[in-house]
């Protein structure tokens, strides 16, 4: 196991470029809405500049604006800055000053501490538009400089031996965050970022967009106006996943009992669960079998080193006899887990799979995505050993079936009634101290209040995956406003021209495609990122010089 680095822990730390700015931890649940905001004129899809002036609210303007201020927004801003746009002409509105803040929160809750590795490739570098040097080469160089020749050699072997001879290389989460901090300082993210909870977006009569957002920070002594407006000519939206995904039976249990401690989502803060198990032991039921479930099993296995009286029941809907196949490729299976190094095949990023998806119809895209993706996890030797040893020793068991009911017994334990599947259909009950839902995040566009409002006001089309439909350059159809353009990226566009939309490299690709489209449309200050400019900008990146 990798050892923790006590000198690096990003949780609740302010961003290095704005040390006085303490943004609240990102939350999925929207705050209580102010019924007087947005103003009445926002009931219409198009607003005149005169109406905006009559509101007597603070109004600002930049040519470019992005909503979300996460890694999707960061990638778009980075592409703009490298392409010649100054900081004075860009605004990023969101609720965390750190572009990785929300992602960091989810990662830590799903048991990926700072010293652990992500499910991401070496060249997926949100801090580096060119992808070189990748995280693997940087890590090798760091180990070499520190005199750790053995570690450096093992990393070289891992790179050349993956994925057949060795585990696929993935970067440490702390290395990624440090690199993003470095790039944020270089591109002036501290001058671009603006705190705000975006409530609504409307077209203006003069070919722009107006963003209505709340500026009050929860839990702080706020002064000044509670609401503001921002006008922009070119708009980008990357709001991430709108909510936690809960299995219906577990959601029903929580609504009926109000018990948020025994039944938890893997993306919620549930450290109390592991603390209880370390002291008292007990049985845990895990639902789901993707990458997050693998992380949960790793953490539970680590807790068993302190208290061996911890058992795991892994409930799965059905057995996996063989992996999904596409053409001649088939995913391997072991211990009921289907393996794929990343959440999509590599070719989905830059190879023929990406080109095929761009040419396909929406229905064909949905079919292709189901074949390429699905519920998979990374093939790691330590995870394979955990499940192998757990099955052999009996403290880890797999059960197949559908949940009929979950209830709380008088002594406080959870009883799950399961209808089993397989050759022998039966009904059984399982009693556990905790249930962890590791089935993922909710991605439907309508689950996000801002997106739901846009869909309603502008009759935006949804793709067959229930996400916002986008063109191949990630422009949102129906939102063009004269010379104004609106683009989107991230999970809200899954089902469009790119499979890996919520990966680091996918966010960068979407940013580049949209910025390239803007450059071709003659957008303000944008310069073509040709060979000469690309080389000069990379040299500036290497020397930590502003674009």
What brief labels describe this structure?
FAD/NAD(P)-binding domain, about 35% helix, seven-stranded mixed sheet, alpha/beta
Summarize the structure.
The chain has 547 residues and is α/β, with parallel strands linked by helices.
Number of helices: 17
Low-confidence stretches: 1-12, 19-32
What is the mean pLDDT? 91
CATH topology of the domain at 40-115 and 176-242 and 444-542: FAD/NAD(P)-binding domain
Largest sheet: 8 strands, mixed
Instruction: Please identify which CATH superfamily of the domain at 40-115 and 176-242 and 444-542 we are dealing with.
Output: FAD/NAD(P)-binding domain
Structural class: alpha/beta
Gyration radius, in Å: 24 Å
User: Kindly, what is the distance between the CA atoms of the first and last residues, rounded to a whole number of angstroms?
Assistant: 39 Å
CATH classification, class level of the domain at 40-115 and 176-242 and 444-542: Alpha Beta
Number of extended strands: 21
Instruction: Examine the secondary-structure arrangement and name the CATH architecture of the domain at 40-115 and 176-242 and 444-542.
Output: 3-Layer(bba) Sandwich
Question: Can you tell me the overall shape?
Answer: globular
Percent of residues in helical segments?
A: 25-40%
Q: What percentage of amino acids are in beta strands?
A: 15-25%
């Amino acid at each position: 196991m990798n050892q923790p680095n006590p000198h690096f822990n990003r949780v609740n730390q302010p961003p290095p470029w704005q040390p006085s700015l303490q943004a609240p931890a990102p939350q999925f649940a929207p705050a209580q809405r102010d019924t007087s905001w947005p103003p009445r004129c926002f009931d219409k899809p198009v607003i005149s500049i005169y109406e905006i002036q009559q509101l007597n609210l603070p109004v600002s303007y930049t040519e470019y604006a992005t909503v979300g201020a996460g890694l999707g927004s960061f990638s778009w801003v980075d592409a703009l800055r490298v392409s010649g746009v100054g900081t004075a002409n860009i605004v990023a509105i969101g609720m965390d000053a750190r572009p990785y803040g929300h992602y960091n929160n989810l990662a830590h809750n799903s048991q990926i501490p700072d010293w652990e590795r992500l499910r991401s490739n070496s060249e997926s570098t949100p801090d580096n538009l060119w992808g070189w040097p990748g995280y693997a080469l940087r890590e090798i160089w760091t180990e070499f400089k520190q005199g750790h020749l053995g570690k450096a050699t093992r990393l070289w072997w891992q790179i050349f031996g993956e994925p057949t001879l060795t585990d696929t290389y993935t970067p440490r989460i702390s290395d990624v965050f440090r690199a993003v901090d470095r790039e944020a300082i270089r591109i002036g993210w501290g001058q671009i970022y603006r705190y705000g909870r975006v409530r609504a977006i409307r077209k203006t009569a003069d070919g722009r967009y107006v963003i209505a957002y709340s500026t009050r920070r929860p839990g702080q002594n706020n002064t000044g106006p509670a609401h503001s407006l921002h006008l922009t000519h070119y708009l980008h939206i990357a709001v991430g996943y709108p909510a936690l995904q809960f299995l219906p039976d577990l959601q029903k249990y929580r609504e009926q009992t109000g018990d948020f401690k025994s039944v938890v989502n893997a993306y919620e803060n549930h450290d109390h669960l592991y603390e209880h198990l370390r002291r008292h032991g007990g049985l845990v039921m895990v639902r789901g079998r993707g990458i997050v479930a693998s992380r949960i099993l790793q953490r539970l296995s680590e807790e068993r080193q302190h208290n061996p009286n911890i058992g795991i029941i892994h409930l799965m809907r059905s057995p996996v006899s063989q992996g999904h196949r596409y053409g001649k490729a088939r995913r391997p299976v072991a211990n009921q887990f289907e393996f794929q190094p990343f959440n999509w095949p590599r070719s989905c990023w830059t190879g023929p799979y990406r080109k095929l998806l761009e040419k396909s119809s929406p229905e064909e895209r949905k079919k292709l995505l189901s074949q390429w993706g699905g519920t998979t996890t990374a093939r790691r030797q330590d995870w394979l050993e955990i499940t192998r040893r757990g099955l052999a020793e009996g403290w880890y068991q797999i059960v197949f079936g559908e949940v009929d009911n979950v209830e709380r017994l008088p002594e406080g334990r959870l009883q799950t009634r399961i209808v089993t599947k397989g050759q022998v259909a039966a009904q059984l009950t399982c009693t556990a101290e905790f249930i962890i839902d590791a089935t993922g995040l909710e991605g439907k566009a309508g689950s996000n209040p801002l997106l739901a409002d846009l869909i309603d006001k502008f009759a935006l089309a949804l793709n067959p995956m229930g996400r916002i439909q986008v063109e191949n350059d990630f422009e949102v159809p129906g939102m063009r406003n004269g010379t104004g353009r609106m683009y989107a990226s991230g999970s809200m566009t899954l089902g469009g021209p790119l499979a890996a939309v919520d990966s680091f490299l996918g966010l960068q690709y979407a940013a580049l495609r949209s910025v390239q489209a803007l450059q071709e449309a003659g957008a303000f200050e944008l310069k073509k990122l040709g060979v000469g400019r690309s080389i000069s900008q990379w040299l500036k990146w290497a020397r930590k010089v502003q674009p």
